[in-house]
Design a protein that fits this description.
Blueprint lengths: L37 H10 L12 H5 L5 E5 L5 H9 L4 E6 L2 H13 L5 E5 L2 H7 L5 E7 L17 H10 E11 L4 H11 L2 E6 L9 H8 L5 E7 L2
Parallel strand pairs: 1-2, 1-4, 2-3, 4-5
Antiparallel strand pairs: 5-7, 6-7
The chain binds S-adenosylmethionine.
Length: 236
């Protein structure tokens, strides 16, 4: 490990946000403030930099030191799905991104324990990261249990709102796909409506066997909520 090592420059705040950022952009995540525990702080300082994505335009070949299909996971939480994917697909590379630093620090520790080499972890908003990726560069994007923003007045904060969906589809290869999993009753309908705006199609798909039952999916299953998997791809 150690490729692309960059110090993660954070203080003791876990993430920043209101409904919009200083430029007026609608944000998809909640503001969370709190001090990092000593364990998290040490993971942020020592382990997370081993998985860092260097600043600037993302050149996957340079980041991973090889040419391989590239996958992006948005909102990876503690990293269970990202690590499950990387272990099951050693011939793919995956960048996982989340704004929640303690979760990402946990993901880094788990990746180190599992000796995963085809994973990088990025602390921050997925939208500017997508903007740093070349058009048509991603084999897949994973969006598992995104924040549901159930109130109608918040629906623009859902990650799959048309403007973000359009950016994401542009970064996919022509044969690429966005995999979405959700337990939010209205999310699939909303996704279908947004997909029709940007010329994409949505189909129900099987739950990937490599995704461990963990994180928000586990909570949903334990609470008796139905989870569905969907695949989004460009029409034509
Ligand atoms: C409901 S949690 C799901 C976490 C994980 N995928 C799971 O299934 O357990 C949604 C996650 O998305 C992250 N998130 C929301 N908007 C994001 C964005 N624009 N960029 C990066 N992460 C984001 C949140 O910080 C949170 O960790």
């Amino acid at each position: 490990m150690g490729i692309g090592a960059t110090r993660v420059d954070v203080d003791n705040v876990t993430s920043y946000s209101g409904a919009v950022d200083s430029a007026g952009t609608v944000l998809t995540y909640r503001g969370r403030r709190g001090r990092l525990s000593a364990l998290t702080r040490s993971r942020v300082d020592v382990v997370l930099p081993l998985y860092a994505v260097p600043e600037g335009p993302v050149n996957a070949e340079q980041v991973f030191g090889r040419r391989a299909p590239l996958v992006l996971e948005i909102g990876c939480g503690h990293g269970a799905a990202a690590i499950g994917f990387c272990v099951a697909h050693p011939d793919h590379d995956l960048v996982a991104v989340d704004v929640h630093l303690p979760g990402l620090a946990r993901a880094a520790a788990a990746a180190a324990d599992a000796a995963v080499r085809n994973l990088r972890l990025h602390s921050g908003d997925a939208v500017p990261l997508l903007e740093r990726l070349p058009s048509g560069s991603l084999a897949a994007v994973h969006l598992f249990f995104p924040d549901p923003w159930p109130k109608a007045k918040h629906e623009k904060r859902r990650f799959v709102a048309a403007d973000r969906l359009s950016l994401l589809l542009d970064r996919l290869r022509p044969d690429g796909a966005l995999l979405v999993a959700t337990d939010a009753p209205d999310y699939a309908g909303y996704l279908r409506r947004q997909a029709s705006v940007v010329g994409a199609r949505v189909v129900l798909s099987p739950r990937p066997a490599w995704r461990p039952l963990a994180g928000f999916e586990l909570r949903a299953v334990e609470a008796g909520r139905r989870c569905i998997d969907l695949t989004v791809s460009r029409c034509g």
